[in-house]
Design a protein that fits this description.
58% of the residues lie in helices and 9% in strands. It has 282 residues and is of the alpha/beta class.
């Protein structure tokens, strides 16, 4: 979108703004981490020209332009590039790390509240509750999300499997028509998760993905895509809104299975936990 805005505005730019425009078009990855002064020095214009360039594109200032560019490039950024940009803005430096973390996650939760498709989430819950086999795939940091989902689902659905270690094709191909393969990946997207869904889909399995955009690499391999806002914090992948969506999915699956069955399973598990002294006694 930024590239399109720049190209549309080219005929209106001054000579100085044209030099900035060419720099942004040729070096978007570098521009995402430069201050207005640094851009000005590289291009050979004044800092105020860079600020006016951002305003000409419809942004309230250069920081807003830079943030928009970073969001577009988010799934390509390395952990080092994320760290490089963390707490660079003066207004961000005034906040404590706790404030910045909590406010960032709160903003992501507000966005998730109005953007996550509840109808699609209910459809995914139906798949989880009814398929003969359900395979969960999550790699690297997203493994924690897949494991969390598996941990609670296997209380009620012993046919749930968490794919750990090497993913063997025969595991994905077995009884494919009655299998649901659910992949979880957020920026930066893991290749192995994407390839697992592609293979499963080719075999005839139902595939679903939890990711940040239908345009993410895994979106093309999924029959059903649940999108959740993702806003990394420095080198950390913040999964707060994704965890909330997983909690909602767990409750929807329980609803699909029915209260009598859930109560029966929990009573059975509580007896086992008591006999095995899993939890500390009062």
């Amino acid at each position: 979108m930024i590239r399109r805005r720049i190209l549309e505005k080219m005929p209106e730019f001054s000579q100085g703004q044209l030099r900035i425009a060419r720099f942004f078009l040729e070096n978007p990855r570098s521009a995402a981490f430069l201050t207005a002064l640094e851009v000005a020095e590289k291009v050979g214009v004044s800092e105020s020209t860079v600020v006016r360039f951002a305003s000409a594109l419809g942004y309230r200032g250069y920081p807003e332009l830079r943030k928009a560019l970073q969001e577009i490039l988010a799934h390509h950024l390395t952990t080092l590039e994320r760290l490089q940009n963390f707490r660079e803005e003066p207004e961000e430096k005034e906040k404590t790390l706790l404030e910045q973390a909590l406010l960032g996650d709160a903003e992501s939760l507000r966005t998730a509240l109005v953007t996550v498709d509840y109808g699609l989430l209910g459809k995914l819950a139906e798949y989880v509750a009814t398929r003969e086999r359900v395979l969960l795939v999550g790699r690297r940091s997203a493994f924690s999300l897949a494991h969390y989902l598996w941990y609670y689902l296997h209380w009620f659905l012993p046919r749930i499997s968490l794919l750990e270690g090497e993913i063997f094709p025969e595991t994905l191909l077995e009884n494919a028509p009655q299998t649901l393969v659910l992949g979880i990946t957020l920026p930066r997207y893991t290749r192995e998760t994407v390839e697992a869904l592609k293979l499963a889909r080719q075999a005839g399995a139902t595939t679903a993905a939890i990711t940040d955009s239908v345009l993410s690499p895994i979106g093309e391999a999924a029959d059903l895509v649940i999108t959740v806002p993702s806003q990394p914090m420095a080198f950390i992948d913040s999964f707060v809104p994704t965890m909330s969506v997983l909690n909602a999915l767990l409750l929807l699956v329980a609803e699909k299975l029915g209260r009598p069955y859930i109560k029966k399973r929990l009573a059975y598990l509580e007896e086992i936990w008591k006999n095995q002294q899993v939890y500390c006694q009062d």
